[in-house]
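Consider the tokenized backbone below.
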């Protein structure tokens, strides 16, 4: 009986001429499509409209893609990309960073909230539900690409990534699956909490849980991963761990403030315009 799993999935589903449909792109897109459906249900249940979801989805897509790409270029290989700036535009060649996506989403939603007079924390509390689901699907996309895998392991669920010739001789931790499963469970928890309590949830609770749980697990699972770039070999904590620490602290601070002084969410998350006297 084999004590490992042979993984040799083609990252490309099919191609028509120069057009190629890949698992990663499909799962990335599904995160937005399914997420939009769920977010619509959440918004309508709390008195908002589908139009609000359409607008915020555009902000989310732009913030996610730009943030993830710029995060990868600036956090992992700034020397190369700053010397070859045209390469930053080649998203199809790979290179997206989840920490950069987080920053991009936070900025995009701040701009959305400011323009459309939404309570920023109300928006974050709802959006992290679908972001968690999207994150789970993206990590499955990494698995389909045979990338972001872990160190060698003797565990029976170790994967031999056949398409990674340099690493294909021994089973390795499928860290993509570890992260995908953990984030999916986080999605289930956040959605259950929202469905049970809705606007009765203290303002900031869902966002605090999401950030703390997501990046704590990310920090821990990095100990099992192969380095993403060569310079990480000399680091006590790799780049992913270093970027996770401030986000964990932000999450803990928000949870502490919620525990100290829980405040109800604004009905529908809409900030009322101040009338002039």
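A designed sequence for it:
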């Amino acid at each position: 009986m084999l004590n490992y799993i042979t993984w040799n999935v083609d990252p490309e589903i099919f191609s028509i001429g120069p057009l190629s449909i890949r698992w990663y792109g499909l799962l990335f897109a599904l995160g937005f499509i399914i997420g939009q459906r769920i977010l619509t249900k959440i918004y309508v249940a709390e008195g908002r409209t589908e139009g609000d979801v359409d607008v915020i989805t555009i902000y989310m897509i732009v913030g996610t893609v730009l943030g993830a790409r710029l995060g990868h270029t600036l956090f992992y290989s700034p020397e190369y990309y700053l010397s070859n700036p045209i390469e930053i535009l080649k998203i199809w060649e790979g290179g997206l960073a989840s920490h950069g996506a987080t920053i991009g989403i936070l900025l995009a939603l701040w701009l959305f909230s400011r323009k459309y007079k939404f309570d920023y924390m109300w928006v974050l509390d709802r959006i992290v539900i679908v972001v968690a689901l999207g994150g789970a699907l993206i990590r499955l996309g990494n698995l389909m690409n045979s990338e972001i895998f872990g160190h060698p392991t003797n565990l029976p669920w170790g994967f031999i990534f056949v398409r990674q010739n340099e690493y294909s001789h021994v089973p390795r931790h499928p860290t993509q699956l570890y992260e995908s499963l953990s984030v999916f469970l986080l999605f289930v928890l956040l959605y259950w909490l929202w469905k049970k309590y809705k606007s009765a949830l203290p303002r900031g609770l869902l966002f605090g849980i999401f950030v703390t749980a997501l990046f704590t697990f990310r920090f821990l699972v990095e100990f099992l991963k192969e380095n993403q770039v060569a310079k990480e070999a000399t680091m006590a904590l790799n780049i992913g761990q270093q970027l996770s620490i401030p986000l964990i602290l932000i999450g803990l601070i928000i949870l502490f403030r919620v525990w100290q002084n829980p405040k109800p969410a604004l009905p529908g998350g809409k900030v009322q315009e101040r009338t002039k006297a």
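The radius of gyration is 20 Å.
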